[in-house]
């Protein structure tokens, strides 16, 4: 039996597709791969493909191709670059269902959730289509007599992005369309756990006829990341992933003199006030805590119930979360898909044990969900009541469908609990009180705030403004910040002696 399993595994390794990189406008096998990793469907354990862990030589090929493409791409008019993005938008929309199915198959989230992700991916391109407007500089005539001053924006150069597993379609597009729209060339390193959706996205990019080298895809893991941090041909680095790697990337890129933005992990609190509309609050909490099996950086993983809100909320919350259907996200009837891998499942189960050992009470236990594929990586919705802010399960990111409930006596204490977190990505409040909202919005130490909204992830046209350990850098992802990140400002002060207005002395002249 064991021998047959081994033979089957070997067959799978030789027959599943080995993914290529996309460099200089063509698909190429990795030439310096240390080894290959299996890409699996977390709902079934099926091996979908093999991904190379590319090496330094592959990254160097991509950097050379991106650098070579840079001068000519910058020469393309801003309007023509934007037209390429309009075309990209249309072609992504035409393949949106295929992209969504790819997201669900390799990452596990439900198909409805994957469709929403792909819609947000496309929205990023729509926002970047406005670059002829958003990339404009500013000018002021007559800063001195006959002297004008103007600031223009120019591309930064070769930009690279390193992305996580939980949004295989959207997160790479927090960067790619803005970077190339601003006249940069681009290298993407997708998550080695979910490389398939970006293969599709790059097929689409290939079809719009960008000059070779404008966009490049290098599959792999840590080796490629380390190369990105030190390669002198890369000017800017965008990172999204866990807090420890965000720190490593931020420090490494800054040390090498690169522009860098690093979005890290999170622990998001949902405050429920006694006057909250309970039915809608429960809906918001369930979507936030258990959507994508809790694997969103904006997932609400701690409910802070204020005073009598707790007793109104908890029984119904537990009942509704307990009724969620767990299984393969490709089926429309499923509410909660698998987590990314069996290793992630085991880590999450260990967190639940730890929470219980710390004194939290398991009031909904998802450790052994019934009726799921035993080869899949499933954890059911789990709720721990009587949690306290000092517990590790309340402080640290679990990144699974695990919700802790902490009680607070007042809004003031609830804000204190939220602000005690080292993370500051998002937080939400459920209440009908404008006064409570005003105080919460003003005092809370988190960068994205939802009011009666469980997942307050901003649309593409606003920046994704995490704070504290959830974000290292100055300029955030997407929205106006993206144009700031992907351009360098140049300020020109000028005067002309034959312009008809006799210029004054620039420094000493006063009116
Ligand atoms: P991860 O940090 O393990 O991996 C992210 C990327 O870094 C991947 O491309 C991976 O190949 C690379 N990487 C991993 N370990 C590395 C190492 N030691 N050295 C160099 N590179 C390394 O993150 P993940 O598990 O893929 O994604 C989940 C995490 O991402 C969660 O912590 C989540 O909160 C976070 N996230 C944050 C945001 C945000 O906006 N703040 C958005 C999405 C996800």
Compact overview of the structure:
The chain has 511 residues and is of the alpha/beta class.
Structure description:
By secondary structure, the protein is an alpha/beta fold. The chain has two domains: 10-264 and 470-490, Aldehyde Dehydrogenase, Chain A, domain 1 (3-Layer(aba) Sandwich); 268-451, Aldehyde Dehydrogenase, Chain A, domain 2, CATH 3.40.309.10. Helices cover 39% and strands 21% of the residues. A seven-stranded mixed beta sheet has the order 14-15-16-13-12-18-19, with helices on both faces. A six-stranded mixed beta sheet has the order 9-8-7-10-11-21, sandwiched between helices. The protein is globular. The model has no long low-confidence stretch (mean pLDDT 96). It binds nicotinamide-adenine-dinucleotide. The site of nicotinamide-adenine-dinucleotide (NAD) has 29 residues, from helix 9 and helix 10.
